[in-house]
């Protein structure tokens, strides 16, 4: 496992967020259903494949500095067979578009992807 600029355990974070989302869904089921439908539509097969769409989502997560986004989208990329080279190249574009703050989150995305790959191998 590589050193991260943060001590975030992305698997633990995504598990906690998922539990909190279940609670939120109980309070606002229509909102969560709408969000889930939007996500399903956005990731549906089309001209872009699922891996490309997840790379875009991770780039936006880096630019928005969203730890949960790093966790969920790196896990999806590991499942979809993304390579380190693909993730690194996308992170280069995210850094270019987001400057210094995106560079810091790109470094954290590397740690999240390493963690997701390790979990995938188990």
UniProtKB/TrEMBL annotation:
Cross-referenced InterPro entries: AhpD-like, AhpD_core, CMD-like
Domain of life, source organism: Bacteria
Domain Carboxymuconolactone decarboxylase-like, residue spans: 29-111
Gene Ontology MF: a single term: peroxiredoxin activity
First and last residue of the signal peptide: none
NCBIfam families for the chain: ahpD_dom
PANTHER family assigned to the protein according to its UniProt record, in alphabetical order: ALKYL HYDROPEROXIDE REDUCTASE AHPD (PTHR33930), BLR3452 PROTEIN (PTHR33930:SF2)
Protein name as catalogued: Carboxymuconolactone decarboxylase family protein
Organism of origin: Comamonas flocculans
